[in-house]
Amino acid sequence: MKSTVGVIGGGQLARMMIPPAVSLGVIIKVLEEAPGMSAELAATGVGDYHDLDTVLSFAKTVDVITFDHEHVPQHVLHALVEAGVPVHPGPDALLYAQDKLLMRHKITELGLPSPDWAAISNADELGAFLDAHGGRAVVKTARGGYDGKGVRVVDDKNAADDWFTVLAEDGRGGSLIVEELVDFVRELAQQVARRPSGEIAAYPVVETVQKGGVCAEVIAPAPTATDAATGLDGSASTVAEVARDIAVRVAEGVGVTGMLAVELFETRDGRVLVNELAMRPHNSGHWSIDGAVTSQFEQHLRAVLDLPLGSTRPRDAWSVMINVLGGPVGQFMQDRYPAVAGEFPAAKLHSYAKESRPGRKVGHVTVSGARLDDVLADARAAAAFFED
Fold first, then answer.
1. Residue 172's pLDDT band (cuts 50, 70, 90)
2. Are 233 and 353 in the same domain?
3. Which of 204, 277, 292 is nearest to 244 (CA)?
4. What is d(CA 277, CA 96) in angstroms, rounded to the nearest whole number?
5. Counting Cβ atoms within 10 Å, is residue 220 exposed (0-12), middle (13-18) or buried (19+)?
6. Are 250 and 256 in contact (CB under 8 A)?
7. Which of 224, 225, 222, 198 is nearest to 306 (CA)?
8. Which GO terms describe its biological process (predicted)?
9. Which residue of 73, 246, 268, 325 lies most exposed, with the fewest beta carbons within 10 A?
10. Does 361 count as an annotated binding residue?
């Protein structure tokens, strides 16, 4: 009997689950938020994921529920579980991807390295943190931020007054998060998959490059990831081993099922610090579609169905993924396929079926090969064709 996976959310992550579902013989159904979204190919309904009746009705048509994003409210998630629907990842895990303040508390509880942080509810508390941390810090909203939204670098205690006002007007209380401004060498991302029975598979740690708070480039594996670092137990280790150990401990500590991405800072003094969590396929893993034996999207489906996990081994020495951001307004990425494919025949082109507008993720390009300099140059040049 075929298994049916229901994906809440019709974005590009759901879209990229469709090809591996076909290969695995899995039926995939998508509840999209509006008609014509990226995953329309598999959409079987349009509805508000905040509405319990809508989500429960969709769940009756599938064997397991998973997600394109982490924004489904907790009361809806718990109602699904109470109705006997397998939900992966479950609400108790997703909570730490939905609320950064709870995430920080959990990361601290697990004994994992993190930037210095505090919960703050007024300007004076922000000012005290700034005074103790060199006059600059990062302020984040606890919920709702992504791709640089809900994040500010501040150097004045009144720089987040508008956010404090919103919290006060909300009537439910709450706090912002302030974190030290980390002097990092680079940003990394470590992905692992975990199935309900407990098996875990880790991908190579990758280096990510952000532009305007949005992931622009990913290099897999991260260069110099075998350099020396201090392990979680204080022993001699490597950056790659520390990143993997952090992600495994997070996955086990919060009970993640499916894909988990842990965004990390590598600091100038050799530390690896937890920045953010995502409990779904992640932009940092798009390289795996073409560059790994098992893509993160196939792996996610395997995990949520509790199937044996696939090999995470890279197919080439290097893979570089470049996000296509924007492009000529009114065009689609596929409009320029012929020119790019002719110029860069080794480039793998992925369209999200989105109309271009400034700064919007409309697709990505991946190039793999033996020499990093060549791979990086070709990937950047191919992506630039779509953006000009």
1. low
2. yes
3. 204
4. 8
5. buried
6. yes
7. 198
8. 'de novo' IMP biosynthetic process
9. 268
10. no
275 is in an annotated binding site: yes
Binding site annotation covers 276? yes
Alpha helices in 25-148 (DSSP H): 52-59, 74-82, 91-98, 100-109, 123-132
Q: Which two tokens stand for residue 310?
A: 């696939």
Instruction: In whole angstroms, give the CA distance from residue 102 to residue 91.
Output: 13
Q: Determine if residue 122 is labeled as part of a ligand binding site.
A: no
Helix, strand, or coil (residue 84):
coil
Name the residue among 211, 115, 100, 208 with its Cα closest to residue 150.
100
180 is in an annotated binding site: yes
For residue 69, give the amino acid letter: H
Strand partners, 292: 314
Any binding-site annotation on 179?
Answer: yes
Contacts of 258 (CB under 8 A, 6+ apart): 66, 88, 89, 193, 194, 279, 280, 300, 303, 304
252 labelled as ligand-binding? no
Residue 171 has what pLDDT? Answer: 64
> Which CATH number fits the domain that encloses residue 239?
3.30.470.20
Does this model's pTM top 0.90? yes
Q: Tens of pLDDT along 184-208?
A: 999 999 999 999 999 999 999 999 9
Query: Does residue 52 share a domain with residue 189?
Result: no
Provide the domain limits for residue 59: 4-87
For residue 159, tell me if it sits in a domain: yes
